[in-house]
Every structure is written in C-alpha cells, then in structure tokens.
Amino acid sequence: MQKIKIGIRVLIFSLVAILCFSPFAWKKIFRIQAVEFVEITEDTVWSEDKVVDGMISISDGSTLTIEKGVEILFKKNSRIIVERGLFLVRGTKKEPVLFDSEDEESGYSVMINSGGGGDIRNADIKNGGNVVSLIANNSLMQSAYGAEYIGAISVYNGGWLQVEGCSFYNNKVAVSLKNAYGDRVSVSRSSFYDNSQYDVYNNSSISKGEAIFDYNWWDSSSGPKEDKISGSIRFDYWAKSGDFKDPVIIIPGILGSQKKDGQWQVDLIFHTYDNFYNAFVKDGYVPELDLFTFPYEWRDSNIENAELLASKIEEIKEIANWPKVDIVAHSMGGILSREYIESDYYQEDVDQLITLGTPHLGAPKSYLSYESGNFSLGYTNILTRYVFKQEAEEGGYDNLFDYIHGRPIDSIQELLPVYDYIFDKDTEMTRTYPDNYPQNEFLENLNSLEMTEKLRKVEFSKIVGSVGGSESTLSGFNVINEDFGEYWEHGYPQGIEVYPLSKNGVIFDYGDETVPLISAKSEDIFSDYLIELESSHGGLSTDAQKDVLELLTGERPVEEVRNSLVENILIVSVYSPVDVQVIDPDGKVIGKDFEMGEAVNEIEGAYYTGFDTENEFVTIPNPKDGEYKIRTQGTGNGNYRIESVLISENDENPLGADESMVVFEGETQVGQIEEGSVDVSGNEVLEKESDIIPPTISISSPEDQDYLNTGNLEISFNVEDNVSITENILQEIKLDNEIFTEEELELPMMLLGEHELKVTAKDMAENEAVETVTFNLKTNIESLIENIDYYYDNDLIDKKSTKRFIENHLRQIKKLIDHKEKVLNHFKFHRKYKKRLERVFDRIINKRIDLLIKHLNRQSEKEKINFFVIERLIEGLEHVRQ
Fold first, then answer.
1. Whole-angstrom Cα distance, residue 348 to residue 334?
2. Short-list 160, 27, 163, 138, CA closest to 85
C-alpha cells in the first residue's frame, strides 16, 4: 500500500512538472490558471522594454520580433512558447537584447516546439532555465526519482533554432533540447559561462541529427567542460578567448586601390584609410589574422569584383578559422559589398556591413564622366582625370570619353544616380528617372525591394557625411539640349568646363562634397543604424572610426588615430618611351634606379607604379616646397612627354581644386638620361628658371571695324602657352576697361561709338600677355526699328501697344528719310533749290524725332520702358538726326 502511495505521488508530481515546464498545450486542459495567458496570432514587434508575467504563445504562423536594445524581464515561471510561429530577436553588438528574470530560483524559458522556430541574434540571456526534481515523500524518507531540465532557450520535437552572437550566463540551464532534430539547431559565435547546471542539456537521440554548437566560447580555452554538457552536440571548433570577434575586411572605393609589384594594395596615393586601419590595430585587431583589406580593380564592374570578394571571404574564413566576417566599406566599396550580400551565391558569411559615404542611390558626378569624359569636379576627380588621361593615351584611345566607353570602365556607369537629378532648362521641369537619363540597371536591380530585403540577413549600418551646408555637394544639373555629337547625349550642363561659369549648370545640396546626403542615407533601404557626421567624403573614415569600432565590438574607444591627411599631391606622369625618377628637395628618390634597374622609394607616403607597366607615374602627397629634379631614361627611340601636376584642395571652390602643371617634352634614345627641374611653391608648380615666354593671344571676334548696333556679337579668342595648359592659364576680359564675363556682346544695349576689348592671359610662371582690339558701333534707322523687337522680347518694353507706337513713329521717320533720298537723288533741282528742299525735309524729319524723344521721356516717367533702353533709343535718334 505504501508503494502505491509513493507511485501516485510521483505520477502527480510528474504531471505537474510536465504541465508547468513543457510546451504542451496545457491551457486546453486547465482553464483556471494562476498566471496570465496571452496568445499572439499576428505579427508583433516589441520595440520597448517588456515585462512577461505568465505565458505568451506565438501561434498561427505569426512572428514576434524583439528589436535592438530592448530588455525583457520575466516574472516567476513565465514562458514564451513558440508553437506554430516564429521568434525573432534582432539585437546588435552595440545594443543587444537582454533577457532576465526577477526570480533567479525559478527561471524563465523560451520554448520552441514543433512547427515553431527561433532566430536569435545578439542577446544577453541570463538568470533563465530551471531544474525540477521529481521527489516522493513518506513518513520515513524522501526519495528523488529524476529531474526535468528546462533551458533558458528550449527546443522540442522538431522545432528549429538559430542563435548567433549571444551570451548565456548565470542560467541554471542555458540551452535544452528535448526530442529535437539536431540538424535544425545551430548555436555559434556565442558565449557560455557561469551557468550553474548545464550550458547545453540534450536528451535527443543521435539518430535525429547532431546539434551544431561550433565557434562558441565555453569559458575555457580548451573548449566545453564535460560537466556542463549533457548529451551529444557538435563543437569541433571553439573560440580560444572570451573577447573573440569577427575578422574585419576594409573595402575602399574608386581610386582606393593601386597595384604595386604586380599586387593590388589599398590606397597608396591618398592614404585615406591609414588612420582608419591603424585605429583597428590600436583596438586590438591583428593584421592578416582578423584585420584584412580588399583592394581591387575599381575600373571593373562591381558584379565581377563581388565574386572576387566572395573568394576573399572564403580565404579569410580559412585563415581565421571562423564562419563569418564583418565588412566596413567606403564609398563604392559599399555597393560592391551589397552586390555580394544580395547575390545568389552569398554564403551567409557576413555578420555586419557598415558603409561609409556609400552612394546607395548613385552619385551625380558620374554623369559628367559618363556623358563626356569630364572629371573637372573635385579633388580626387582631378587626379582620376590625369590617371585616366595617361591610360587612354597609352592605350590608343582618342579621348577620355572613348576610353570610358571603350575599355569599358563599368564602375562609372554603375554609379549613375537612380533618382531625379536633371533639370531641363528647355522645359523648366525636373526629369523623372529613367526617362531621358543614362540608365543604371545595375543599381536599379540592387535597390529593388526583393534585393534589399536580403540586407536584413546582416546587421547593416550606414554612416554618412554632411559638411558645408546646402551648397556643399553637387546633386544635379541644369541642362540644355545641344548637339555635341556623341557627347552630352542626355543634356549639357552649360559652362561645366570652366569655373565659375560651371555654377550655372550644376545644382548643389547637402552632402559630403562628393556624395549627396539623399543618396548616402537612402532612407528607403533598411538599415539598423544611420549615423550622420560632420565630415567630408575623404575624411569620413577617419571621423567615423569610433562609431565603427563601437558598432563592431560594442565598446567605444576612448582615443582615436588622427595623423595628417593628404591635402596636396604632386603627380608626375610618363608618356613613353622613357622611365622616370624624381628627387625631392631633401635628396630622397622615388622612381626607377637607372643604375640598378629596380624600383626605389625613399619618400614617405609616396607611390610609384613601377617601370614594368604600361602606365608609369609617381605621386607625392603633401610635397614640400622646393626644387624637384625629374630625370628620364630612354626605353626606346622617339618623342616623350612628362607632365608634372600639383593638385591642391580649395575650400573656396566647391566644384574642384587648384591644379598647376609643367610639361617636359623631348626626343630620346635607348639608355639616354636627361634631367629637368620644377619648383613647388604653395599650390603651384613651375618649371625651374625656364618658363619666361608669355602666352599668345589671338582675337578673332570682334574685329577692328565698324558694326551696326543690332543683334549679339560673339567674343572669340584663343590662348596658348609653351608650358602651361589652357585650363591653368588665368584669363581676363575687359570691355572699355571694365571686367566682362559674358560670351557675347549685346550690341543693342551698348553705347554708340568706339569700344575697346582687352584680353589678358597669365601663365603659371606669372608671364602675362595682353591683346586689344578696337571696334566702332554705329546705327541707322533700320537698326533702330530692328532693335525694338529685341527690347520687347527681353521684357524691356512692357506693352505691345507701346512697342507698336514706337515702331510706327520710327517707320514714319524712315519713310521721310527714304523719301528725302529719293527726291533729292532722282530729280534734278537747281543747287540752291535743292539745298532749300533738303532743309525742309530735315526740319520735318527732326520734328518727328523730337516728338518721339518727347514721347519716350514721358514713357520713362511712367516706367513703361526701361530707362536704359530709352537712353539707347534717344542716342540712336540723335545719331540719325538730319
């Protein structure tokens, strides 16, 4: 009888334990409960802290999502039961989700049953789980018959679970598996420590598959402790320390990679990423172990480079013996990274993607290059122009446009904006993309909803720059439609080639001086974080280093690395058949060692392509003032050219930078060595004691002659120099000793009589040339009549009735003048009578003129005619007075 009583007690206790701590639908058995029951039957998001008091069931295919930084506090014996739904936790490294219990003795559990699933990312899970002992009592003894192990996270009967980046600590049982299918359970890149009973308790059979627990920290460098694991799980690989982190790849943008000794390396010219890279090293990352760069051929398509990135990530995973990497990508590097993550061959091996100044919607500057081969805007663009110019010429292309489209340089097309950025001056309307735009199908596809949803697989952060207010960044164009042949197919930004005329053709907005803020933010594309900094495009990697490291590690560094950035750069480009060597003012050498036949570089931060290349050049950042010797050695027979260009940032010119050039040309033979010198002074480079010849100026219009004051007269002249390129020659036009900036003379608006047009040109060596032309402006009654239409069309005469009145009077005066000429020239009169008749005609004509002048003065008082026009008309009438 005693045994029966004990059996009954065990059975009752077992039933209670099962009902309290298992995910069965116990609520259907007992309708009266001491705890609250809530059933979630539709998609729900918890974005604020939450207290769970009782049982919460996720069912009917619904999803419960917990957002980053949310704290969930469980009351005694509270549960979240995932029956036929989905449990998503979307914490971040910076802001993990916290699960905690107010009663450490009776911990909570998230229970995932058959038909349910859990995807938990970046959560701190503590004070959860429970151990329930099965005990039988009688008057003589107390006996324990078993225990029920409930995990803070529990998986039952075929439910699935994926956990990444979580910390399980101070739990009784961290993770429990009961009759679970092991191949549906994966926990990785997480930490287990200070759990009192088990890190993992698994009572599932091996035949149902082995649960994967690789790449975790088990509170020991030697892996899981035997007494903390029950049952079979796979843990072939584990972290060797508790502060493990994902390997990081830094990916640059356009011009951010160069070849050296046949290998691609990151930014050997501008050193944009030096501070950034060194900040990672200072924070504990080890180069080539968990800190990597991905230099690449940025001229090629991002699609091709994304495939290379996939291979690079595979290589890094093998080196680091780790399943995932973090990517930090600057500018176009972010587009490249997204192309991989959104591709069909993505291997689920990126944990975080952080983009810095990435033009997610495109960059309007690429329109200039794509439409005409123009690289006039921006500091880095000017250097790109010289690099491309050399490549185009050495490659046999006629110009940059042909090179961009003929090579082709796909990255330029793939950076064309995919939003409205062209204003049509002809229609006074902003065009709607993609109508009458150069289309960017690559970026359209990348930004489609189907593709951008794939970014939710990673923790995605955008860091953007904004500096200089609403006038800092080129964001669009005012275009006119003119026939330039193959150039400017979709519209010409008027005057774009020459500053300040180029300001008429461009539109500015907020941004980092390269990428408009609207494109970098790309607010329709999901991201976990959007951080805006007061920073330029080139300075963003330096300015964002603390934010980036905080996003990656969860800890914000106290110090940062801020060495000097490149503000000026000297580029020496070689046009065959010679090799080059440059010696700076301190005697340090970069280039080819002519005696040893090898490359040499003694100048810190300088870059030499090497001489075994089709496009040989040298760059020297922040060059010192002084003399630079440029030596050449012939590699063949024939003509050669050396261009030495100093490019300097200019904060006062939002469209570009200052550039100064010296060109050496000559004829060489194999092995022949020659030497020239340039002087660097501030933002100028001059040929050493050689440029003493001023520019030559030839004025073709206007000419030294008489002109009637009708229509517009084009100003046309040509300036050439023996050293300085045309773009670097300072030009000034003066009309009658006043500065004149228009391209045409409006003759109806000018005073009659003699005028002087003076053109001044000054080359980079301060040699000045002046050329003048004198022309005479006349009028007649026909010109006066013709000019009335000009004044009216330009809104200088406000009413058509006024225009007609003046025209009628002028035509009457013309008839009188014509009649006078006809009478006096076609009839024979006695000289005395003819003279008298002429005076009669003159009085009549002049009286008409006086009446019209009187009327014009009255119109001036009524402000119906522009006062300046009245002056021109009265001056003309006085000129035709008889």
1. 17
2. 160
Q: Residue 600 pLDDT more than 60? A: yes
Half-sphere exposure of residue 424: CA atoms within 13 angstroms, side-chain side = 15
* Amino acid (one-letter) located at 487: Y
Q: Where are the beta strands (DSSP E) in 25-116?
A: 37-40, 44-46, 50-52, 55-58, 63-67, 71-74, 79-82, 86-90, 97-101, 109-112
**Of the ranges 102-111, 321-330, 379-388, which is most confident?**
321-330
Report how far residue 795's alpha carbon sits from residue 789's, in angstroms, rounded to the nearest whole number: 10
Q: Checking DSSP bridges between strand 117-121 and strand 598-601, what pairing results, if any?
A: unpaired
219-253 pLDDT, tens digit each: 999 999 999 999 999 999 999 999 999 999 999 99
Q: Which amino acid is at 285?
A: Y
- Contact partners, residue 565, CB within 8 Å, separation at least 6: 271, 272, 275, 538, 539, 542
Q: Which helix (H) or strand (E) holds 518?
A: helix 517-521
Mean pLDDT across 377-390: 85
Distance (Å, whole) CA 369 – CA 391: 15
Helix (H, G, I), strand (E, B) or coil at 439: coil
Task: Show the CA angle centred on residue 400, arms to residues 395 and 402, nearest 5°.
Answer: 75
Burial 700-738 (b: 16+ CB within 10 A, else e): eebeeeebebbeebebebebebbbbbeebbeeebebeee
DSSP helix/strand/coil, 605: coil
The alpha-carbon radius of gyration of the chain (Å, integer) is 40
DSSP string, 175-195: EEEES--GGGEEEES-EEES-
Q: Hey, which residues does 459 pair with through a beta bridge?
A: 352
Beta strands 617-621 and 607-608 are: antiparallel
Q: Two tokens at 799?
A: 């009413």
Average pLDDT over residues 729-757: 92
Q: What is the DSSP string of 779-806?
A: --HHHHHHHHHHHHHTTSB--HHHHHHH
Strand partners, 50: 72
The backbone torsions φ and ψ at residue 384, rounded to the nearest 5 degrees and listed phi first, read: -60, -40
Q: What is the model's pLDDT at position 655? A: 58
List Cα–Cα distances, 446 to 294, 339, 414, 415, in angstroms: 21, 7, 10, 12
Quote the CA–CA distance of 17 and 22 in Å, as a whole number.
8
Query: Where do we find the tokens 């604020």?
Result: 48
Query: Is the CB of residue 551 less than 8 Å from the CB of residue 527?
Result: no
What's the mean per-residue pLDDT of the chain? 89
Share of the chain above pLDDT 70, in %: 91
What is the DSSP track for 294-315? ----TTS-HHHHHHHHHHHHHH
State whether residue 820 is helix, strand or coil.
helix
DSSP 798: -
- Which stretches within 409-511 are classed as H helix? 410-414, 441-446, 449-452
Query: Is residue 267 within 8 Å of 346, Cβ to Cβ?
Result: no
Flag whether pLDDT at 728 surpasses 80. no
Q: Could you write out the DSSP letters of every residue in 843-878?
A: HHHHHHHHHHHHHHHHHHHTT-B-HHHHHHHHHHHH
| CA gap 514, 518 in Å, rounded | 12
| Residues β-bridged to residue 739 | 734
- Residue partners of 12: CB distance under 8 A and separation at least 6: none
Confidence class of residue 25 from pLDDT cuts 50, 70 and 90? Answer: very low
The Cα–Cα gap between 235 and 121 comes to 19
Terminal Cα-to-Cα distance of the chain (whole angstroms): 148
The helix/strand/coil state of 257 is strand
- Please tell me whether residue 252 adopts helix, strand or coil conformation: coil
pLDDT tens-digit map of 152-178: 999 998 899 999 999 999 999 999 999
For the record, the structure tokens of 693 come out as: 């010849």
Q: What share of the chain is helix, strand, coil (3-state, %, to 5)?
A: 25, 35, 40
Cα 820 → chain centroid:
73
Short-list 24, 73, 71, 66, CA closest to 43: 66
Burial of 586 (0-12, 13-18, 19+ CB in 10 A): exposed
